[in-house]
Amino acid sequence: MSSDIDVVTVGHALVDIRILVENFPGIDQESKVLEQSWGSGGSAVNVAIGVRRLGLKSSILAKIGFDSFGRIIVDDLLKEGVDISGLRISLGQTGFTIVAINKKGEITMYGYKGAAETLGPYDLSEYAISRAKWIHIASLRLDTTIEALRIAEKYGLKSSWDPGRVLASQGLEKMKPVVSRVNVVFLNHKEATMLTGIEDYKQAAKEIASTGPETVVVKRGEKGVYIYSRELEDEIPAYRVEKVIDTTGAGDAFASGFITGLLKGYSLRKALQYGNAVAALKISSLGSHGVPTHDEVVRFIWERGGI
Questions:
Q1: Domain range summary for the chain, segments of one domain joined by +
Q2: In the CATH scheme, what architecture does the domain 5-24+33-162+238-303 have?
Q3: Which end of the chain is more exposed for a tag (fewer CB within 10 A), N or C?
Q4: 268 falls in which pLDDT band (50, 70, 90)?
Q5: Could you write out the DSSP letters of every residue in 14-77?
Q6: Dihedral through CA 211, CA 274, CA 192, CA 167, nearest 10?
C-alpha cells in the first residue's frame, strides 16, 4: 500500500491550560495570573502538529470526549491540517492538563487523563496506520502499544516510542515486548533510570539498546541530547535561547524535529541538531504548539553557523 501520510501518532489527546503566575501560592493563598493560554496538547497531538508544521503529512490515533474540550482538540488538529480519521470519541470526558509556570520558569502540573487513557487495541485503525511511513507512540498503555506495533510491523513502518514515566516505571523486563521491536526510543534522564534502574544515562541507554532498538535518545533538557545507536554515540548540545518561556512539550518538539529530519533524509547527527533547534524555538513561546516551520528552523540554525 502506498504511503500518503508521513507520520501517524498514537497516544494522548488532551487540552493544555497554561498560566504564567507571579509565584506559586501556599495553602489558602492566591497568585496573580500574568498570562494564559488554552489549546490542544498531549504527546500524540503535539508531535502530529509538530511534524505537520515542519512540512510533513500527519495523522493521529487518540480518544477524546464528546464535549467542549474535545471540540478544541478537533478544531486545532483540523486547523493545522492533521488527518483526524483515526480519532475516536468516548462517552467519557476529554482529558486536560493545567500547567502553572512561575517567573523563574519552574513548573507545577495537574493532570486528568479522562478519555485519553481509554484508547484500547480495538480502537486502532489498521487503515490509518497502513497509510503512514512512520509511527510514533507516546505515553500509551502497554496493550494498545503492542497492538499498534503489530500493525506497524505488518506494513513495514519505521517506529519510535516515548514511554513516559508510567510505563518507564514498570521496568525494562516488562517493556521488552515494546523496546525490542521499535527503531527509536526517546526518554529523558529520569525515565531512562526508571526503566533500567541505572543512574548513569549513558549506561542506561546502552542497556536499553542491548534489547533491540537501533537508536536510543536521552533528552537532557538544557544540556541537549545523548544518542546511542549502531551508527553514532555522542552528546549533541542544545541551542541557547535569549529567554526560556515554557519548557513543557520541548521533548515532543524535539521528537517532531528528529523524526522529520530522518524522513527528509538527514544523517543522524543532522537530524539531532535539527530536533534541538525545533525544541529551542518551542521553549521561547508559551503554549503546546510553539513548534516552528521548517523555514524558521533553517533560519535559526543558519544564524548560528549552520549544521
A1: 5-24+33-162+238-303
A2: 3-Layer(aba) Sandwich (3.40)
A3: N
A4: very high
A5: EEEEEEEESS---TT----EEEEEEEEESHHHHHHHHHHHTT--EEEEEEEESSHHHHHHHHHH
A6: -80
First to last CA, the chain: 35
- Positive or negative, the CA dihedral 101, 296, 83, 214 is negative
Beta bridge partners, 141, equal: none
pLDDT value of residue 307: 64
Nearest of 33, 11, 74, 54 to residue 286 by alpha carbon = 33
* Band of residue 2 on the pLDDT scale cut at 50, 70, 90: low
Mean pLDDT of 120-128: 97
Residues 6+ apart with CB under 8 A from 208: 172, 179, 185, 187, 192, 195, 196, 216
pLDDT per residue as tens digits for the range 157-198: 999 999 999 999 999 999 999 999 999 999 999 999 999 999
